[in-house]
């Protein structure tokens, strides 16, 4: 008799690390008979993998839980069972509160404990409610299955977690804990497995990925650059990226790797947060704008075609018109291929949250953000336009929204959609770019002969 799969739906908010975690949760749960479905209807388990980094995170989770409660009640009225779990950084920060306010939630667990899902599910199936927000002494990475979920031909590989930097606005050091680096052996073995399972691109992940320092057990400490050289040796891995970095950890080895490793893509997301030295200091970033520009210049020297993206926070407490102008000026000087900008949001428990008196009025912050985003949109459109007429290698990793369309990414991480056969997904193929939009490109697949 073949056993029927149980349906699992995971809704993921936030960063790529959460996407990696969601994939790993589904890998673990598949051994318990769960299979991921792409609609939340009539499921046996629903996991909300949450993000706490900016505003209204908790509100969003509660409004989603409200909707799920109805599904659960309906399912139970028909004699079924549906487990509801809240995972990720909101779970880590607000575990008990969620359990109290949403008594129909079965499991709450933080980002460091999902390898314990089999035990948690067993308890929840026995009608025991589970809260698991410890920072366990054993690493979850030692207890994850060898099979990986890979979307398209691009795979995430978590190499480092947590952060010791304590930027004054950020919850990460509290929700993800201190810096932890996996061993080089584990990471290289995982990279090989990913390649064997179809990955052509590996994106190395960490909250502070370039602070990576893994001990190999033979007395050598590996930095991110060492890992990149080693992974570049794997046949079949054609593209390597890493995210997210801190300017202070862009050491010379890593910069040199950008010049020497062709598989390392010529695109780097390097958050700076502000262009004002005064604000950078208040943010505890421990570097000046000039240091950031210096890193950018060094990278451009070794890899002239490299393009950049960044994160900026607009309206940090105490930000004056001049500070904001400094951020605009820095963005103008760099010239981004893309860039994220966020209105400052006070996160409970962070040092900046106590700077109430210096809060920038909401209307001013909104105005500044719009102005900043207008500049970035201009830069992005401009960068995309420079690609028209060029032939770019594209890694196709998904179906397009329209029938007969497929989607992929350029080396510069631009989204691109073309008319093409689904069989091309999973391959790197040359595309002649014919048109550029604000957020994507289009073109024609270059045929041979
Ligand atoms: N308010 C606004 N943006 C924030 N970020 C982190 N914390 C906050 C906050 N409290 C932004 C930073 C970071 C990105 C992931 O989110 O720019 O790089
Ligand atoms: Fe947060 Fe700063 Fe650490 Fe990045 S470096 S995760 S912004 S504390």
Verbal overview:
With 449 residues, the protein is α/β, with parallel strands linked by helices. The chain has 3 domains: 6-132, Rossmann fold (3-Layer(aba) Sandwich), CATH 3.40.50.12160; 150-385, tm_1862 like domain (pyruvate-formate lyase- activating enzyme); 391-445, OB fold (Dihydrolipoamide Acetyltransferase, E2P) (Beta Barrel), CATH 2.40.50. The chain is built from 12 helices and 22 strands. A 6-stranded parallel beta sheet has the order 2-1-3-4-5-6, with helices on both faces. A 5-stranded mixed barrel has the order 18-19-20-22-21. The longest helix is centred in the C-terminal third of the chain and has 24 residues, at 362-385. The protein starts with 5 loop residues before the first strand and ends with a strand. The site of 5'-deoxyadenosine has 12 residues, from strand 16.
Key attributes of the depicted protein:
449 residues; alpha/beta; Rossmann fold; OB fold (Dihydrolipoamide Acetyltransferase, E2P); 3 domains; 5-stranded mixed β-barrel; globular; binds 5'-deoxyadenosine; binds iron/sulfur cluster
N-to-C span: 52 Å
Bound small molecules, by name, code or SMILES, are:
5'-deoxyadenosine, iron/sulfur cluster
CATH topology of the largest domain: pyruvate-formate lyase- activating enzyme
The main sheet comes to: 6 strands, parallel
- Molecular shape: globular
Q: What is the number of helices?
A: 12
Helix content: 25-40%
Which spans of ≥5 residues are poorly predicted at pLDDT below 50?
none
Secondary-structure class: alpha/beta
Our estimate of the beta-strand percent is 15-25%
CATH H-tier superfamily of the largest domain: tm_1862 like domain
Number of strands: 22
Order of strands across the main sheet: 2-1-3-4-5-6
